[in-house]
Write a structure and sequence with these properties.
Blueprint: H1 2-74, H2 81-110, H3 120-154, H4 166-247, E1 251-255, E2 261-264, H5 269-272, H6 293-298, E3 305-312, E4 318-329, E5 335-344, H7 346-360, H8 370-381, E6 391-399, H9 401-408, H10 410-428, E7 432-438, E8 441-446, H11 452-466, E9 468-472, E10 476-489, H12 496-512, E11 517-520
Parallel strand pairs: 10-11
Antiparallel strand pairs: 1-2, 1-5, 3-4, 4-5, 6-8, 6-10, 7-8, 9-10
Helix pairs in contact: 1-2, 1-4, 2-3, 3-4, 9-10, 10-11
Length: 527
Amino acid sequence: MSGFTELTVTRRLVILFSALSVLLVGISIASLLYLNCTINRLSSSLYGDVYENSELVLNADRDLYETAVALHTLMARNTTITDREELVRTFKDNIVQVEQRLGWAKANINAIKKPYSDMKQGELLLTELKTELDGFDNSFADWKRSGDQLITERMQSGWNPDSFTPVLLNLTLNQARNHLDQSETLIERYADQVTNAFRNKKSTLFTLYSLLFCLLILVIIYLGRRIITLQKEMLEEQSLYQLIGETMSDFIILTDPNGLILYASPSHSSVLGHIPKKGEPLSNYIREPEISWAKLKSVVQSGQRLSELRMRGAEGQWVWLETKVTPVKGSGSFPAQFMLVSREITQRKQYEERLHKLAFYDHLTAIPNRAHFKMYMENLISQPEERRQDIALALLDCDRFKQLNDTLGHLAGDEFLQLLSRELQQTVKGAGQAFRIGGDEFAVIIHRFSNPDMLEEILQRVLQLFNKSWSINKGSSFHTSASIGVALYPQHGSSINELLRAADVAMYHSKNQGGNKSTLYDKRLEQ
């Protein structure tokens, strides 16, 4: 009962720690988000209310100055008609620029609607700024009107240069520029107000955040001490589990999600001669390509998986193991760890391998037999259409093999078949597979050729292999040849029996023609 109570208290502490952590982190995040929002508002305000508007006012002042320069130059005595036209164009273009820039600046300022509730002074500055811009409009209108009048007089033929007095004109210009200078000063003062307000808010936020952070540290310290106590208890339990693992006869490996070994039981030493090292990839010990860690991991995401794999021993040998792989669920949707529990099955696998060889390999020549031939052929025929290859089935019969048995004996015939099988395998290697399907009769499945000429070349190599003298029975010489019949899939049959029948007809045609010949099946051969 005391253990149950302690477990309940531990769970409550964990829940409390998690709740406090989430609460404090949430408050911190909210504070930071608010601070970030304030920064964004400041950046937007500074750009829209200060930098952009200040640049517009400065550029308007520059354009206004350019109008004055153009107008004074136009009033000079020695200007040509072309120069006067260009100066008039410059004057009017700059007038338009001033109107556009000030129009944009006024629109931006009018769009500001109490960016901060506590910035009363900022609102007064905005009101004063709007008044200055309105005053500029009046002075600018006077300047524009005076300029247009002077241009009209200057363009007349009887204009008198002595009639131009720049004093009044400069006075109007200075009034307009003074309004622009005052507007720029007000914009800068408004920017200072925004910056100071932001700094005050930021200081408040950081103070609150610091207090919350200190509280979080205190909570973590308190709960951290409790967690240390719980960790000691967990270590004691882990030691108990490790003791159990070390005394078991099965082989236990624990890995992380990436296949790195976290624990390997000492029982591995009795079979492998060593213990897989902690921290090394499990793939270092599993033989490829029978199984890979990535494949093993992918097939056990949903539950336990029983697999057969080989692990490397200390002397380089491979030991067969039957392994149950179990994902140990973590907090997420993927396994946090994988546990492999294995037992040795090397003798069973060796027995299965011997049974396989007895079932699918010829006991005399060690090459694939008739059963293997059927399985091999069925696999090729059942391939999907997009992966299907051209297939040629060649039946081979040794000419004069009966003569060899009658003259030198069956042992010599067996020796010849063994020699022939090895060389036949080498001859068709890379192009297909050879099989002994009975007596002196062989079958060759050729499925790696791209055109009829390539197939004919392979068949000619097989004929040349047979058509030579063989040294057998301790120096006795024997000369033979082969009769070959060839059937193509699917032209000459869609099943194994149909292909065998067609190839058999073609082979007997070769034999009737004297042997040492390859014949491709044709319906006319059966007539």
